[in-house]
Amino acid sequence: MAVISIERMGLLSVVCVSLFFSSTFAVDRGNFKTCDQSAFCKRQRALKPGQSPYRALLETLELSDSRLTLQLINDNNKVHLLLELYRLQGNMTRVKINELKPLKPRFEVPDVLIAEPPTEPLSVLSKDDNGVVLSLGAENQRLIVSARPFRLDIMEGPEVLLSLNSRGLLAFEHLRLHKDTQAQADGAEVKESVDGDQQQDEGKKDEDGESEKEEDGLWEETFKSHTDTKPNGPTSISLDFSLPGVEHVYGIPEHADDLKLKTTDGGDPYRLYNLDVFQYELYNPMALYGSIPVMLAHNTQRTMGIFWLNAAETWVDISSNTAGKTVFGKMLDFVQGSSEKPQTDVRWISESGIIDVFIMLGPKPSKVFSQYASLTGTQSFPPLASLGYHQCRWNYNDQEDVKSVDQGFDQHDIPYDFIWLDIEHADGKRYFTWDPHKFPQPKEMLQGLMDKRRKMVSIVDPHIRVDSGYKIHNEITSKDFYVKNKDGKNYEGWCWPGNSGYPDFTKPEMRAWWASMFAYDQYEGSMENLFTWNDMNEPSVFNGPEVTMHKDALHGKWEHRDIHNIYGLYVQMATAEGQIQRSGGVERPFVLTRAFFAGSQRYGAVWTGDNAAEWDHLKISIPMCLSLGLVGVSFCGADVGGFFKNPSTELLVRWYQTGAYQPFFRAHAHLDTTRREPWLFGPENTALIREVIRQRYALLPYWYQLFYQAHKTGMPVMRPLWVDYPKDTATFTIDDEFLIGSDLLVHPVTEEGSRGVTAYLPGAEEVWYDVHTFQKHNGAQNLYIPVTLSSIPVFQRGGSIIPRKDRVRRSSTCMENDPYTLYVALSPKKFAEGELYIDDGHSFNYDTKKEFIHRSLTFANNALTSSNLCPDCNFLTSSWIEKVLILGASKPSKVLLKMDGKETPVDFEFDTSMSVLTLRKPGMNAGADWTLLLQ
Amino acid sequence: MTCLHLLLTLVFAVSLGTPVEIQRPRGVPLTKKQFYEESKPFTCLDGSRTIPFDRVNDDYCDCKDGSDEPGTAACPNGSFHCTNAGYRPMFIPSSRINDGICGKMTLHLDISPQQCSMHGMVLHLKFFLCTDCCDTTDEYNSGAKCENTCKELGRKEREVLQKMAEITKEGFLLKQQLIEEAKKGQQEKQSKVTDMQENKKQLDEKVEALRTVKETAEQPEKEAKERHLKAWEEQKAAIRLEKDKAKMAETFLELDDNADGFVSVSELQSHAELDPDADGTLTEIEAQGLMGGAEQVDTSTFESVWPKIKDKYHSESQAEEPAPVETPPDEVKEPVVDNDSEPYPEDDISEEEDEDDEDEDDYHEDDDKAQPTIKTPEKTHEDEEAMPPYDADTQALIDAAQKARDDFEEAEKALREMDDQIRNIEKELSFDFGPDAEFTYLYSQCYELTTSEYIYRLCPFNRVSQKPKYGGSETNLGTWGSWSGPENNKYLLMKYEQGTGCWQGPNRSTTVKLTCGKETVVTSTSEPSRCEYLMEFTTPAVCQEPANIDPSPHDHVEL
């Protein structure tokens, strides 16, 4: 959580206090920079599309097997850049641009790519004075390097898929000496505000002198009371991308905005800068807690991705030649045949580092996901229990409180797996410790939970209380692991404990030490059912510029400016590693983080931060998690109920219904809100909440299998409809409903007092079954669904098989050996398929020892067959198949189970009204080969 | 307590059971044994369908009401019966069968009553959790190694129940006393109010009578005083006239420099201060003007000149020493200031005493009015001479009137006090002190609990407050609102509302939970939600009549 309780933070500086005393419930925008207030963004954005001053020096071209290098020159300032091109395996191209001879090295982001991406040979198809044509291998794909001005085009056949610097917005502020030190050495050189400055007359103005340049913020910049000393001067970079034929772009989270990205003309660009935003506002491009600089471009023909690997403050401008045109206008263009092709133009601007771009060419959505996964890794495979329900609050006051909430769940027969402890559990906000009065016996408490087969999460934030009586602080100090300020002293800032130091998580030694702190003998009172929550890891610094760390703070030789957006990733990385190590590498970790970056999906779950108990916040949770899913982070959720303020009962119930169908399912509440455990709103509402949490638990086998798939392939778990229906333009902007995997379609009710919702059921060939009534609906229609407070519209796709565990217990672990019910939803062609994945639910043995069961379930020709997808796997389960429901079936005369060469009859029932065939207790082990024959 | 009733009923029911294990399907209570006959097909208890008996407890749910699977977890709404020999039988939701969790019922002497919902019944269990079977019969196939804890539990429960029963018994006795006292007190108060109201009537009359006496005595007093004053005024005027005359004569002599018996124009001109146009010089014409056009005036004619000049005229003898003239007023002022200051500075009066204070203020005002009459002589210090004392007749009239006033005021004050007392008693009588007024004794009492940080103070029917142990101001956690327990017994909870506001939050409020105890004590406080406090309070006043069956000797049949 991020809100500062003034009562508790009496020592805050006046500046900081005023920051949080806004009377209305909304972000105080004045605390955060607009592009105009961020000097490099303003400089870069002042540069308008036009002829690029960059020229490729073709004579410098060098081609090794898979790497092409070429120098670029800026004709205005004669600074040379080095272009590197790689053809990567899996239909990707990497474009790197750096200074040929920088004054000192520029930062290149480490630890994001899981490995140096494997390359494939590049070959020159043709070359002349105007440029070079390279082959990208299959499908007639070519990469064209144009020399004057420099631009890159990726073609497939006659089509341009994507162009770089086609609008001439490549701009590279080269490292330079400060004017004082420069000492008129090259007074003749025209100073430029941006390297790519094309307007010579503007260049002349720069000679006016000192004052103008200071305004440009090249060497120093002040925002509110904070001055950013910029010892390296201007270092920003920018590049434009044109996407012909593309009208829909997605991704670049985290923003509280619609799924489909909007054009940014006339407003601020989308900002990527990890910030602790108090009471964030919806539907705008302001930066939030995390940043993933990945954008997806989609049309009916193709899906592509752009991954801009840069961890500095980044702004993304989007414009479109069709934006603002009405449907009628577009139609007119079409009829008149005069239409220019729709095109989206994107421009990325970062404050420092180099240009390092991965162009993922798809062409299918699933291919883009696997391409991105091949670069940054997939979603970590979470422990099964973490897919259950999480009960959190700032704060569960003491051990008794934890015990009575735990008992409350049993008394009301509501399952849950994790109870959470926020910052008040620690002794004076010293993480890794326990308040001696409130939590005197943490092990006793954890044992009590373990007896119930439940778990706990405690918060461990990366700000460390400066306190000579605190072991963690003393060790970090003695090992010199703190981030330094610009003067080389330990950087200190205000956070929950008061004055705090910030460990330098960019240091591998620091991370190793941090990980070791999670060992059972180091983190006193911890046990194997205690997991971790990393909050405030943007990092949040209450009295820092924009509530974060000063950009001139130092991480070794790099400035915080260079690494800012990856700090949070490192915190979660080190924490997850600690959890793995404490179990000797056996157990899977579970770590929740608020800040994130490209690659964070490898370390755990993410939530959307400090939302509010408002209907719009419930709505926005869908596009926010969909956007994260598109760029690798599947394990996403929003605080159920809303963090700030008190939800109405209706909103709370609706939020549970929505959250139960989102990947990370946790209720959370601010310290100042009234209690809202699920049973506090009367028996009727308790029953509604109980019901939907039970629906979640029944579907855990499906969720788990989807996470296994996400872990293996990079396919998002919670998906926009267009991912599975890429040619159906009606799906392209839908973000009030979503798919879980390919087979469940969910349209949560997010309107107050709603009496009905209209859900779009995609797929002209599809049928969809209401999972509650089994009623069948045709695809490619807008279906009006009347709703009551108990409704959560969910549909299973005809053609799918979903395994459920309908016996809901107190926790997911209690359900381990329970039998499965298979929900077979037939397609119009009487076909269905699905999978079943089973392992121990918590260890790495699935990976290290192949201890899992992975089965393919197919219904075809009136036979349902389970076959082994992993014959060399070994895992034994006592779970069995207790029931099979076949939706859209016709009544058989006889049902036979074929197994081990024997045929035995199976009892069945047939419901004619809904055409549901129920096979009674076929009884085979879930890991066995079998066939059920309908005759 | 109601919960105790339920518990005991259950225990009692079992103790009547046959002490032999009767064969029946797993999870079926004895009371329902007759529905599960192995030789017959089974009909779901809701009558919805009939199935072959081998489908009972076959780990597949056939009945919508879950009745075919009493011993497995197959039905989502099933319930499992465990005998719990040595303890007491119970139902648990069938989802708890073979879930790997043992019936580890721990004693929680330190926790508040828990509600445990089992099979539609809601029990208040103060000490035990009831989620699993202590006899381990619910974990027959989960691999969990559970220990049978029923005996131990039974023993502990008996101990606890016995203790509770004792407490209840003694508490209930105490409650009877409280009710007795309260009834008595109430009657006393009621009759007191009646008496007082009677007295008040008399007092009213007395006040009216005294008012008449006062007014009758004040009339002659007023007249006598006025007479005396008038005589004194006349006397003073005569004296003043004499003085003026003397001054005039003196002045005449001073002006008549040549002592010729006439004051001439030139002699007058020597006194420039008499200049009528204030130009600094008294011209001849001006002087003549002052003298009514005459060149000179004699003593008798001077009489007409004197009024025109006497205000400006500077005596030749005084002119040399003007400084001391300004000092006397200062000396006069100081005592006046002292007189005005009130005996109790307002700042010292705390807000809570506001109401009382107003009354006091009234008295002060009366005092202030009284004072001037005494102090008048001193205040008129500027006057040349003090007023002569009243003559004996007048003084007698004054004394008589003063006495009448005093008597009247005293009676009036007594009436006010009487009114206050009646109001207070009526207020107390208007409180809802429970069906038998058993909570009356808590009125105007306060109970404290000291924790590591704070001292909590509960003043029933008044307010709850919190004060830091080591200095700092008191915070109001709510003032008396209402009884807010459940419908069947609203006297189990007290609600105190509208306490000090929280920063960006609601006003503080406190719920006080009352449980049966021999002593009247605040046993714990907590803040489950921010600024919403919970206080646990034991009192004999909520102790229910113990059940007829004495629980202590009841024999737990070892089935």
From TrEMBL, chain A:
Pfam families listed in its UniProt record: Gal_mutarotas_2 (PF13802), Glyco_hydro_31_2nd (PF01055), Glyco_hydro_31_3rd (PF21365)
Reaction(s) catalysed by this chain's protein: N(4)-(alpha-D-Glc-(1->3)-alpha-D-Glc-(1->3)-alpha-D-Man-(1->2)-alpha-D-Man-(1->2)-alpha-D-Man-(1->3)-[alpha-D-Man-(1->2)-alpha-D-Man-(1->3)-[alpha-D-Man-(1->2)-alpha-D-Man-(1->6)]-alpha-D-Man-(1->6)]-beta-D-Man-(1->4)-beta-D-GlcNAc-(1->4)-beta-D-GlcNAc)-L-asparaginyl-[protein] + H2O = N(4)-(alpha-D-Glc-(1->3)-alpha-D-Man-(1->2)-alpha-D-Man-(1->2)-alpha-D-Man-(1->3)-[alpha-D-Man-(1->2)-alpha-D-Man-(1->3)-[alpha-D-Man-(1->2)-alpha-D-Man-(1->6)]-alpha-D-Man-(1->6)]-beta-D-Man-(1->4)-beta-D-GlcNAc-(1->4)-beta-D-GlcNAc)-L-asparaginyl-[protein] + beta-D-glucose; N(4)-(alpha-D-Glc-(1->3)-alpha-D-Man-(1->2)-alpha-D-Man-(1->2)-alpha-D-Man-(1->3)-[alpha-D-Man-(1->2)-alpha-D-Man-(1->3)-[alpha-D-Man-(1->2)-alpha-D-Man-(1->6)]-alpha-D-Man-(1->6)]-beta-D-Man-(1->4)-beta-D-GlcNAc-(1->4)-beta-D-GlcNAc)-L-asparaginyl-[protein] + H2O = N(4)-(alpha-D-Man-(1->2)-alpha-D-Man-(1->2)-alpha-D-Man-(1->3)-[alpha-D-Man-(1->2)-alpha-D-Man-(1->3)-[alpha-D-Man-(1->2)-alpha-D-Man-(1->6)]-alpha-D-Man-(1->6)]-beta-D-Man-(1->4)-beta-D-GlcNAc-(1->4)-beta-D-GlcNAc)-L-asparaginyl-[protein] (N-glucan mannose isomer 9A1,2,3B1,2,3) + beta-D-glucose
N-terminal signal peptide: 1-26
Source species, domain of life: Eukaryota
Residue ranges annotated for the Glycosyl hydrolase family 31 C-terminal domain, each copy included: 714-802
Family of this protein: Belongs to the glycosyl hydrolase 31 family.
Protein name: Neutral alpha-glucosidase AB
UniProtKB/TrEMBL annotation, chain B:
Keywords: Coiled coil, Disulfide bond, Endoplasmic reticulum, Signal
Signal peptide boundaries: 1-17
Record keyword Disulfide bond present: yes
Entry coiled-coil feature ranges: 179-249, 394-428
Region (Disordered): 312-388
Biased composition (Basic and acidic residues): 366-382
Residue ranges occupied by any MRH domain in the UniProt entry: 444-545
Ranges annotated as biased composition (Acidic residues): 337-365
Domain EF-hand, chain residue ranges per copy: 243-278
Entry's Gene Ontology cellular component terms: glucosidase II complex
InterPro entries registered for this protein in UniProt: EF_Hand_1_Ca_BS, EF_hand_dom, Gtb1-like, Man6P_isomerase_rcpt-bd_dom_sf, MRH_dom, PRKCSH, PRKCSH_N
Alphabetical list of Pfam families matching this protein: PRKCSH-like, PRKCSH_1
GO biological process, one term: liver development
GO MF term list: calcium ion binding
PANTHER family found in the cross-reference section: GLUCOSIDASE 2 SUBUNIT BETA (PTHR12630:SF20), N-LINKED OLIGOSACCHARIDE PROCESSING (PTHR12630)
Protein name in UniProt: Glucosidase 2 subunit beta
